[in-house]
Amino acid sequence: MKNLGRTAVFLAGASALALATSAFAQTNPPETPPAGETVETTVDAVVVTGSRVIRNGDASPSPVTVVQADDVLRAAPGNLAEALTVLPVFAGSRGAGVNPTSTGSVGAGNASANQLNLRNIGANRTLILLDGLRVPPTLLNGVVDVDLIPQMLVQRVDTVTGGVSAVYGSDAVTGVVNYVVDKKFEGLKMLAQTGVSQQGDGEKIDVGLAAGTRFAGGRGHVEASYEYRDEKGIAYRSDRDWMNVWGVAGAGTAANPYVLYSDLRQAGFPFGGLITSGVLSGQTFAANGTLRAFVPGTATGSSALQVGGDGGYYDSSLLAPMKGHQLFGRVDYDLTDNVHGYLQVGGNLKTNANYSDYVRLTNVQLSSTNAFLSPTYQAQLAGANQSTFRLSELMSSGGRLEARSKSRQWIYMGGLNGSLGDYKWGLDFTHGQTRLGTTLANNLNNQRLAAALDAVVDPSSGKIVCNIALTNPSLAQGCAPLNVFGPTAASAEAIDYVFQETHYTARTVMDSMSGHIDGSPFSTWAGPVGLALSGEWRKLSFESASDALPSDVVNCTGIRYNCTAGSALWTQTFASSPKVSQTVKEAALEADVPLVKDLPLIRVLSVNGAARFTSYDTSGDYWTWKLGLDWRLNDTVRLRGTRSRDIRAPTLYELFAPVNSVPVSTQDLLTTLSPTVASVDLSNPDLKAEIGDTATLGVVWSPIPRFSVALDAYHITVKDAVTQVNGATAAYQRACYDSGGTSPFCALQDRLNGYADKSASNVVQRWYTKYYNIAQVETWGADLEVNYATTAFERPASLRFLAAFQPHVYYRQPGVTTTDQGGVAFGPLGAAAGPSLRLTALARFQPLENLTVDVMQRWRDDMKLGGDPSQIWANNKIDAFATTSLTLTYQADTRAGRTDFFFNVQNLFDADPPPGAYALNGTRAGLRDGYAIGDDVMGRYFTIGARLKM
Questions:
Q1: Is 551 exposed, middle or buried (0-12, 13-18, 19+ CB in 10 A)?
Q2: Three-state DSSP class for residue 679
Q3: Which helix (H) or strand (E) holds 106?
Q4: Could you give the 3-state DSSP secondary structure of residue 110?
Q5: Nearest alpha carbon to residue 114 among 86, 89, 90, 79
Q6: How would you list the strands of the sheet with 298-299, edge to edge?
Q7: How remote is the C-alpha of 670 from its chain's centroid?
Q8: Are 160 and 175 in contact (CB under 8 A)?
Q9: Closest to 452 (Cα-Cα) out of 487, 486, 497, 489
Q10: H or E element: which one contains 855?
Q11: ∠ CA 776-779-785 to the nearest 5 degrees?
């Protein structure tokens, strides 16, 4: 009731504001253009994306999905990147609603960054463009955080779903996403909106301003924009009733299949601490300082997990909070009648945060005379001749690991373009720089922990102090003794002592110079032949610094317990990287040749071809190419197809990243235990570019005006795919154990006693991940788009239906079982959900001249929980999921200008996502997973706002 009350108060206040503003409206606002006209304008606007010579988007052989920014934000108000993911061609995109982590190669310094992923085969295989120019990478793994794009002045977004490396260069394996800025905007527009969930959380505020005008008698134009966003996120997974600590237990065998459970607990790790040795063994500090018998939960197929009971559980953030400022400015000027120049700058200053792990104390050794231990228990231990005892605990009192990622992303562009007779030319320069600073709060200092756990009474003062303060005061560093005997027993001073802030800063810089010239040097009898010649030079550099290095080790001098010389000082680390760089030189030629026209069944037939030579100083020389066919049979039917060879060169991170490590609790399939050990990331300077082969074939059918159907099939194979092979992955573990230790994958784990000993003493000591050119990725499917504009009850109406069918995404590697991530919800190394069938329907109806109703329906089919065919599941399925969204827009002419007042409800029927989890993440249930990435976790969400244009 409290949450509903907060929501009601919010909506009442916001509605009152909107109504007060609308009181200035005139009685006869101008008529809204029919929806059908918008569709036609959108199609006509596609003139360049995917080609440098094709001047008519209707003649492009490559499939292109075009959305007007205003239209998609009307259906899903807020962040443009998140709104784009309603398009079914995107799957596996990352953003605020992903697993909370920022360390390692998956988190890449900011796990909450918005990353677009076509076909769910990697965001690093999707090229991001701004007005046809490459956007510099912003994350340490080479991926672009698309929050950099200036949302207020984006006119449309073109998504080319097919390989276009021959046109745009490396990374365009699955396609490109091209943000097109409105470079001729005149006037002033403002945006103000706010939202809240039905639960009373997840508040969002979004305000923006854009202005543009001509000057110098129309020869010049200037525009600028600013947008501020504040998103509170959802701080705990437990803030949603359906998120009931889901995880997977079992071994994935016929005898012990994987089973999805809820209400999972960490066996033997209660919040207050469990004594695990000696006369007091099996008792827990359920209340501060007081012992009682530990109540175990119901056993599962994993010894580390129980259902219910006294065990602790993780409760990480569900949606990451974000606060950011977007800035943009552009000046255009006609230097002469034939030469045009421009300067442009865009900035994204934002902070993301996520909250993840509690610290887990595993059988720490404590003195039987620990000063915080009750004299009664000390006497019992003394009576049993125990000088020490051991304790395990999930330390919720210390708080969760907090990662705050502060991004300072800037992109500067400038150039000249013009005409030489019938030829058009352009020169462009891009400078991009990103400073990513990640602060890890509550990072455990293992040396300080060991010191603080040994609490004694100072004989001179009678106060409780750290033993090291008596034995080695110079190393004590203000040690505050830590009381771990109870859920809230630890003092604030002790927590501040053992948990510290550590910092990581990365700087990425890209400089690029490109030029092109295009025109028609001659004609065939079917029409003019278009040619384009282009070249590009770019240099990319990366460097980083950290004050919590993997090489930092503990100093155990004077510390009696829980300190092993040479062990890691920090629980969470980032490695520093010296400056590394990569230089690329490219040259390309593209031609569009009309072959036949005005014959029976051949209204127009043309071929398009492109070839590009690319030279990397780090990974070699490569040729890419593309062939396309556009065959218009008549005014109704058009066939199109492409065949391309594409590349993705290894990133600087994959090539030269320093050794880094993160703690993981993956299940060791040899011993069935789940120890918390380091997972060490290794780069590989010998990597080469991966090669993509793509074919598309499609048909466009337009039987009547304002109605069209486009169906495009595709097949993509990526050879020599750069893959991060993780030794903890079940398939690699089994390959090692089945070989008796001879498999090369055995080098990706450390053990004390080989690969046959299944006892607890041989539990894994360390996992390794390393990049290799050993994988093949193969996928195929089809995309459908239907557009229809009509009238209903003599009022404008329109429908847009989009579908993506992608039944398989095969990952093949030598020596291990082929996995299929098509139609699978979870996978290794952060693999995101890839439903085999994804549908989006957008309907618009204008019942009154000044009122528009938009409805969006999204649906995905059911999926498997895991794609490894060697795994046995009790029920390998996560149910289908659908959401409905509704937007009401009232258009009025106010004294200030034309204003759209809108009210939007996302997830109208408050659908809860079906539960699921990754098999090898279950040992830390509540920290990861619980739902398939891409499903709505917010629940019913209300947004109200206004858009003003003057």
A1: exposed
A2: strand
A3: helix 104-107
A4: coil
A5: 79
A6: 264-266, 305-307, 298-299
A7: 32
A8: yes
A9: 497
A10: strand 851-860
A11: 155
In the block, tokens 């939960």 appear at 297
**Which residues have CB under 8 Å from 786's CB, separation 6+?**
708, 709, 710, 799, 800, 801, 802
In contact, 883 and 860? CB cutoff 8 Å = no
Of 834, 588, 829, give the one whose Cα is nearest residue 731: 829
Q: What is the pLDDT of residues 680-692, one digit of tens each?
A: 888 899 999 999 9
Structural contact between residues 672 and 753, judged by C-beta atoms closer than 8 angstroms: no
Pairwise CA distance, residues 774 & 779, whole Å: 17
**Alpha helices, DSSP H, located in 516-628:** none
Which residue(s) pair with 305 in the sheet?
Answer: 266
Geometric angle at alpha carbon 130, from 166 and 138, rounded to 5°: 95
Q: How many helices, marked H, and strands, marked E, lie in the chain? A: 13, 43
Return d(Cα 267, Cα 291) in angstroms, integer: 18
Rounded to 5°, the CA angle 598-602-606 comes to 95
**Residue 183 CB burial class (10 angstroms; 0-12, 13-18, ≥19):** middle
**What token pair was written down for 510?**
């890209």
776-808 tens-digit pLDDT: 999 999 999 999 999 999 999 999 999 999 999
Specify the DSSP class assigned to residue 931: S
- Evaluated on CA atoms 405, 343, 209, 847, the torsion sign reads negative
Quickly list DSSP for 220-285: EEEEEEEEEEEE--B--GGGSTT----EEES-SSSSS-BEEESSEEETT--SS-EE-SGGGTTEEE
Rounded to 5 degrees, φ, ψ at 507 are -130, 125
Give the span between the Cα atoms of 319 and 77, in whole angstroms. Answer: 17
Q: How many CB atoms lie within 10 A of CB 911?
A: 16
Answer positive or negative: Cα dihedral of 92, 94, 96, 98.
positive
The structure tokens listed for 253 are: 């065998």
Residue 3, φ and ψ in degrees, nearest 5: -65, -40
Beta bridge partners, 679, equal 662, 767
The Cβ-side half-sphere exposure at 664, using a 13 Å CA radius, reads: 28
Buried b / exposed e along 281-310 (16+ C-beta atoms within 10 A): eebbbbeeeebeebeebeebbbbbbbbebb
Predicted confidence (pLDDT) per residue in 824-853, tens digit: 999 876 678 899 999 999 999 999 999 999
8, pLDDT greater than 80 = no
Find residue 541's DSSP bridge partners: 509, 581
Q: What ranges in 728-825 are assigned the alpha helix state H?
A: 730-738
Query: What distance in Å separates the CA atoms of residue 798 and residue 34, rounded to the nearest whole number?
Result: 9
Mean pLDDT of the chain: 90
pTM for the whole structure: 0.88
> Using an 8 Å Cβ cutoff, are 523 and 531 in contact?
no
User: From CA 229, how far away is CA 238, in angstroms rounded?
Assistant: 25
CA dihedral 700, 704, 706, 709 (to 10 degrees): -30
Task: Of 329, 305, 532, 331, give the one whose Cα is nearest residue 423.
Answer: 532
How would you class 620 by CB atoms within 10 Å of its CB: exposed for 0-12, middle for 13-18, buried for 19 or more?
exposed
Q: List strand residue ranges (DSSP E) for 793-850, in order.
A: 795-812, 819-820, 837-848
Three-state secondary structure string covering 756-778: CCCCHHHCCCEEEEEEEEEEEEE
Distances (CA, A) of 904 to 490, 884, 888: 46, 11, 6
**100 has pLDDT over 60:** no
Q: For residue 146, how far is the Cα from the chain centroid?
A: 10
Neighbours of 30 (CB within 10 A): 11
